[in-house]
């Protein structure tokens, strides 16, 4: 097959077969198939030999590369100058190895897939926060913590055993942290990170950058004020 070939001469199991002169053409065909085709070039590099990269994507707006790490369960941002930074703390236990990463440049969102493969968290305006068991397909509503409600949540991210949420379906709109219990199902406690601030009259969706939650603060659904991108520490 095109491009498929083995080094038959170096494999001990073919020693007897290679004594047959007719195998010369087979060996030649394999060698031709496995010849190098060197058209690629290095465009970025990392010095971290422990990173174990898997998925990669590039932001066409900035030229920055985003590289998923299997070993450290993080995503590295690599700038054009070669500087790198981890977008989430390394070696956390709340997620498995990060495999795929994709930049949504239009909406300013970075997506990643993990090997956890067991659960998916969703937000629903009418029902609150939900967890989907990916094995059984069972949907579970997370029980709210006493004195709190998870209705009206829009964008959510998972961070160190908590869900950071933009709760813009309530008045006033706010940024919430919902702390999950050890099983990841009920909400053990909830706290307000930001609420009713002048730069965030209509927050929508955000992402984690280091230990900060970075989000679209005034999404312009009902206004024409300049777009603000806000950042808030997750703790």
Q: How would you characterize the overall build of this protein?
A:
The protein is mainly β and 235 residues long. The chain has 2 helices and 16 strands. It has helices at residues 15-18, 23-33; strands at residues 53-58, 65-69, 75-78, 84-86, 98-104, 109-114, 119-124, 128-133, 139-141, 153-159, 162-167, 174-180, 187-195, 206-209, 212-216, 229-233. A hairpin with a 6-residue loop joins β12 and β13. The model has no long low-confidence stretch (mean pLDDT 79).
Brief account:
With 235 residues, the protein is mainly beta. It has helices spanning 15-18, 23-33; strands at residues 53-58, 65-69, 75-78, 84-86, 98-104, 109-114, 119-124, 128-133, 139-141, 153-159, 162-167, 174-180, 187-195, 206-209, 212-216, 229-233. The strands form 5 sheets. Strands 1-2-3-4 form a 4-stranded antiparallel sheet, with no helix packed on it. It has a 4-stranded antiparallel sheet with strand order 10-11-12-13, with no helix packed on it.
Identify the notable features of this structure and list them briefly:
235 residues; mainly beta; four-stranded antiparallel sheet; 2 helices; 16 strands; 38% strand
Share of residues in helices: under 10%
Please indicate the percent range of residues in DSSP E strands (runs of 2 or more).
35-45%
Helices and strands, in N-to-C order? HHEEEEEEEEEEEEEEEE
Show unreliable segments.
none
Number of DSSP strand runs: 16
Number of helices: 2
Strand order in the sheet with the most strands: 1-2-3-4
Q: Can you summarize the main beta sheet?
A: 4 strands, antiparallel
Structural class: mainly beta
- The overall pLDDT average reads 79
What's the alpha carbon Rg, rounded to whole Å? 25 Å
Distance from N terminus to C terminus (CA atoms, Å) equals 55 Å
- The shape, in one word, is elongated
């Amino acid at each position: 097959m095109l491009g498929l070939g083995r080094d038959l001469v170096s494999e001990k199991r073919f020693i007897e077969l290679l004594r047959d002169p007719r195998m010369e053409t087979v060996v030649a065909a394999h060698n031709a198939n496995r010849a190098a085709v060197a058209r690629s070039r290095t465009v970025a590099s990392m010095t971290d030999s422990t990173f174990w990269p898997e998925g990669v994507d590039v932001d066409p707006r900035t030229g920055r590369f985003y590289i998923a790490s299997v070993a450290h369960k993080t995503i590295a941002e690599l700038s054009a100058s070669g500087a790198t930074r981890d977008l989430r703390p390394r070696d956390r236990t709340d997620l498995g190895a990060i495999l795929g990463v994709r930049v949504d440049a239009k909406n300013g969102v970075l997506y990643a897939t993990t090997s956890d493969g067991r659960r998916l968290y969703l937000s629903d305006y009418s029902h609150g926060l939900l967890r989907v068991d990916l094995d059984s397909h069972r949907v579970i509503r997370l029980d709210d913590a006493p004195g709190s409600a998870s209705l009206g949540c829009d964008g959510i991210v998972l961070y160190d055993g908590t869900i950071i949420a933009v709760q813009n379906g309530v008045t006033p709109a706010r940024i919430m942290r919902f702390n999950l219990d050890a099983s990841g199902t009920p909400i053990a406690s909830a706290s307000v990170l930001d609420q009713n601030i002048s730069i965030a009259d209509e927050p929508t969706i955000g992402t984690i950058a280091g230990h900060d939650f970075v989000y679209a603060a005034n999404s312009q659904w009902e206004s024409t004020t300049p777009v603000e991108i806000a950042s808030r520490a997750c703790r």
